[in-house]
Each structure stands twice: as C-alpha cells, then as structure tokens.
C-alpha cells in the first residue's frame, strides 16, 4: 500500500558547501540520501513530495561539519499481509517463482501455486504450465498475487506470496476471464 507521510532526516554537510546555494544543496542531498531507501518501520521511500522545514544547522565540535534537521513529506510503499498486488516474474524454478513488485522482492513457493500447474524444466525459459497448457507463467510475465507474509529487516522488506485464491495468477489470462464475466478490472499498483 502507498502512503503519504511526514518524516524527518538529518543531513550532514561539509563546510565546502556553505554559501549562497546552501539550502539547495541540503535539498538535493535529502533527495539522494532518502529516495529509493527502505526502513523497516515505514517501508520503501518512493519520492519526496515536499520539504516542510530545514532546521537551523548544528556545528559538530572539532569537525566543522553541520547537521541540518529536515522535516519532509514522502510517498512510501509498505506491503501488508493479505494485500493483492501485481508483480513481474523475475525467475521461475522448481521451488517456485520469484517476482518483483516495484522495489519489493516476493517469493511464491510451488506449494502456493495451483495444483493444476506443473513446473516444466525442459522449456526455454523454464515455466509453470497448467494441465491443458492454456496458462503458462515464465520470467517477464505479469501476475497478480496475494501477500501471505512479510519479513522486515533494517535495510529491506521481503514478501511471501500465493497464487491460490480467486482471480490470482497470470494477468493476461485473468483479463480474459474477467472480460468473459463482465467484471471491471483495475490495476493495484
């Protein structure tokens, strides 16, 4: 899920940047240090939207460096158990499917893939095929999955997913089914 939240960060600035472009330098350094990072508490920081306040700098004694406290708002991506998301298949092997949901890596065990789908190692690239071969999932395909669990550590988030629920699986195949049933389909990410 995406959220727009208020965050804080401290920017450490070398004395060579002191001058008329000081605040622009602090802003640029904030963007480079924060965007694309992940915290266990808030998730992946996608983009800084506004910088609310750049506080007064505090000189570090004996060093000359200055620390600027910055308050800003950012869009963050934090996945939760039970959430249904669209993903890109990155790798298929006999133990399951590895997929990327933007910056999030997700693993789908072969136990969480429908029983009518079998791993086919002889095809190039390897894939999971349904018994009647109308559904084939291989790397590069777009799938819809459900998050069944997440592991959060200091530098990242990893998810475990499943395809064993209604309207989950190969995205192009789901589109055909939903069109046949006249159900509107919306992308989730």
TrEMBL record:
Gene Ontology cellular component annotations, sorted alphabetically: P-body; RNA polymerase II, core complex
Transmembrane spans: 156-178
MF annotations from Gene Ontology: single-stranded DNA binding; single-stranded RNA binding; translation initiation factor binding
Gene Ontology terms describing biological process: positive regulation of nuclear-transcribed mRNA poly(A) tail shortening; positive regulation of translational initiation; transcription initiation at RNA polymerase II promoter
Keyword Transmembrane attached: yes
A Pfam family hit: S1
SUPFAM superfamilies in UniProt: N-terminal, heterodimerisation domain of RBP7 (RpoE), Nucleic acid-binding proteins
InterPro entries in alphabetical order: NA-bd_OB-fold (IPR012340), RNA_pol_Rpb7-like_N_sf (IPR036898), Rpb7-like (IPR045113), Rpb7-like_N (IPR005576), S1_domain (IPR003029)
Keywords associated with the record: DNA-directed RNA polymerase, Membrane, Nucleus, Transcription, Transmembrane, Transmembrane helix
Subcellular location field: Nucleus
Domain S1 motif: 79-157
Domain RNA polymerase Rpb7-like N-terminal: 10-64
Signal peptide stretch: none
Family note: Belongs to the eukaryotic RPB7/RPC8 RNA polymerase subunit family.
Descriptive protein name: DNA-directed RNA polymerase II subunit RPB7
